[in-house]
Every structure is written in C-alpha cells, then in structure tokens.
Amino acid sequence: EVQLVESGGGLVQAGGSLRLSCAASGFAFDDYSIGWFRQAPGKEREGVSCISNSDGSTYYAHSVAGRFTLSSDNAKSTVYLQMNSLKPEDTAVYYCAASSRITDAQAMGVISLIPAWYDNWGQGTQVTVSS
Questions:
Q1: Structural contact between residues 118 and 111, judged by C-beta atoms closer than 8 angstroms
Q2: Are 16 and 68 within 8 A, CB to CB?
Q3: H-assigned helices in 64-115
C-alpha cells in the first residue's frame, strides 16, 4: 500500500523557518518524483516544488524559489522541504504527492507542479505564518 505521511507543520512568525517531511512507503521511492503542493482556504491547490529521486533534479514555483529548498534521503524514503523567510501568504495546508510519470523535474518544469500528474497523496500538514 502506497503511503505518504507529512509532518513538520506548525505556527511560525513571518521571516521564520519550518522544515516539512514527507515519509514514503509502499513503492519504489528511487523511481518516483515527489511534489509539494499547498492549498489555502478558498483557493485552488497550488504546486510548490518537485524533486525527482532518480537524479535529484528539482523545480520550484516562482513564488517560493530562493526561499524553499527540497532535499531527499533515499535511504529513508523521505523528502524534506526547508522553508525559509516565510510570509503570511505561505499559510496553507501542505501536501506531498508521488508521481511515476514525472521523470525529470527540472526538464519538465511547470508540468511537475500540476496535480493531475500525481497519483498518490498524503493527508497534509498545516502551516500558519503570522504577521
């Protein structure tokens, strides 16, 4: 059974940092890409970033580039999203998702941030940034 479990969310002041984790199980982690998405109340789900575990390539949405950093520990089947310089507009529920169809996040670019390309989702973790 494919499982994705997010953790690390919480309340932080603007300018602060959080690190989210996505622990995966039930599939060949090295052959998948892991994407992070977020959804604020009343808004559509938005792609934030993606990492391809096969080669470590990454892609970031413009809104988070330079502030968020992805990393992957393939031995632990876990992806980390380090979020720095957080802003109130980063407040949302953050989800990780797995895709076997995204093979190179950097080359596929914005496609890697489209929810329809992902087959399995975690339950989400709340991130709240206060001003």
A1: no
A2: no
A3: 105-108
